[in-house]
Design brief:
174 residues; alpha+beta; five-stranded antiparallel β-sheet; 5 helices; 5 strands
Length: 174
C-alpha cells in the first residue's frame, strides 16, 4: 500500500535549499580537512598533494588515513583517527543521500520528499520525508566532525592553525 503525499510543483522552499547547501559546504570543509590529514601523515606538501587527493574517492582517502595512522602514530592516536574516519564514512552516506537525491517539495515549506532509486540487483523506490531542520542537523554533525579532526591534527603536531598550509613537512608526535 502506498501512502499518498501532496507535493508542490516547482522549486523547493528556501529553507530546504539552505539546509541542503549547509550540508554541501560543510562536507567540502570536512573533505579539505581529510585531505590535509592524509597529506600530513604522508609528510607531503599539502598544496602539491591536492593534485593527488582530489583524484581519490573519499572512502579511499579515509582508508589511507587509517592505514597510515596505524603505521605512524601511537596506538591511542591511531584509534582516535580511525574513529573519526569511521564517523566520516557514516556521514558520507547521509551526505550522499541529501546531495544526490531527487527532491520534491512537501506540503509544508519545511518538508522535503527525497526520491530514492536503487537498481543494484533489484528495483526499489521509496520517498522518505525529511525536514530542513533534520538536514541542517546533519550539516552540524559534519561541522563538529571537522572541528574534532582539526583538533586531533593540532594535538598531534600535524596542523598549525597559524600557518595551515605551510610548506614545511610537519611530523606527527607520538
Amino acid at each position: 500500500m502506498t501512502t499518498k503525499r501532496i507535493v508542490h510543483a516547482g522549486p523547493l522552499s528556501a529553507k530546504l535549499y539552505c539546509a541542503i547547501g549547509i550540508v554541501s559546504v560543510s562536507w567540502a570543509h570536512l573533505e579539505e580537512i581529510i585531505t590535509l590529514c592524509l597529506s600530513r601523515l604522508l609528510g607531503a606538501d599539502h598544496i602539491e598533494f591536492l593534485t593527488v587527493g582530489a583524484q581519490m574517492p573519499i572512502k579511499s582517502r579515509l582508508d589511507s588515513i587509517k592505514a597510515l595512522a596505524s603505521y605512524k602514530l601511537s596506538p591511542q592516536a591511531a584509534t582516535r583517527i580511525n574513529t573519526l574516519c569511521d564517523e566520516a564514512v557514516q556521514l558520507s552516506r547521509e551526505r550522499n543521500k541529501i546531495l544526490h537525491g531527487a527532491w520534491l517539495q512537501g506540503e509544508d515549506p519545511d518538508i522535503g520528499i527525497r526520491l530514492t532509486y536503487r537498481a543494484h540487483g533489484k528495483i526499489s523506490a521509496d520517498a522518505p520525508t525529511i525536514s530542513a531542520q533534520e538536514i541542517t542537523m546533519i550539516g552540524e554533525r559534519i561541522n563538529i566532525l571537522a572541528s574534532e579532526c582539526t583538533a586531533v591534527l593540532t594535538q598531534l603536531g600535524l596542523y598549525d592553525p597559524q600557518d595551515p598550509f605551510n610548506k614545511r613537512a610537519l611530523q606527527p608526535t607520538k
